[in-house]
Amino acid sequence: MSELRRDNHFIPKLYLKNWAQDGKIFSYRLLVPHQKVPLWKAHPLKGIAFHPHLYTYTLGDQVTDEFERWLDSEFESPAAEAIQRVVQEQRLSRDDWRRLISFALCQDLRTPAHMRQFLQRLQRTLPQMIDQTIERCITRLTHAAVHGAHLEINPENLESSSFDDCPFRLTSTPEADGTHTFKAEAVVGRRTWLWQMRKLLTETLQEIEPKGWTVLHAPPGMTWPTSDNPLIRVGIYEDGSYKFGTGWKSDNADLLLPISPKHLLHCTVGQRPAVRGSVVDRGLAQAIRRMIVQHADQYVFSVDPADIAELRPRVVDSQRYAEELQGWKNWGREQDQVEKKFAGGS
């Protein structure tokens, strides 16, 4: 039996190694406890961009790492050769492009930054979603009663019984007066995030065509950094301003993923791509560097520290730093408790 993968890397080592020197990668942390912390620190690849139990979840009374293994087998390992072909500037087949794009969009979803955004959005929208679901059930019951139709209500059929299903449960309890009491339950946490990620990566991803993508080169004397939130979705306006968070398929949205200090995977949705290997002019390259740094969550990685600290000064806050560390320390245990409680029906 294979050992449980507890330390879940949200930025794969096979990706970060393109910025590594002698097996270590230089990182610039955006939140530090005090001013004496060095601006840059070298980390071994296995010692950065991971959190314990980020992707594990409870299945029955066991903790499983199948999601981490699924990401590896479906997105990381298949893309490894294609990434190296980009770095070595070799020919890319259609399958290579498909694997690169799948890897890139997977990187958009699997980070703690995306998880926080998703869970915050879910907290806002879940009450309305539950109300709408219950209203639809009431409408069906009312219609059946008015028209004398038989409507089978089996709570067991309504329950989520496997991880492949949404971690949402709606049950109906018949009352003595002939009415029914509906109860809606959902997991707002790790399991819902993993469910949403799998759904997007198995359904929505298939709608993304492997066309319109290219690889751009940094100009001489400049390099692309990367971060712990590396896939950038950005809308750029005529006045040069921009806004992060556009959709994968939004017209004229720019999607960017640094592949190495020299190579940048790029797509402008709906537009003809530049010739692969085109060198970006210095003004645009500096704007892209700024975007990469601004889009980072907690870490920037670079072979050239040059202006990173000027592009985004770090925050010095000992309390916030301690709270973040404690939050991740408690993460796995808290999520296990929530998932077990849901599975037990309480």
TrEMBL record:
InterPro entries: DUF4238
Pfam entry (one): DUF4238
Top-level taxon of origin: Bacteria
Protein name, entry field: Uncharacterized protein
The organism of origin for this protein: Pseudomonas monteilii
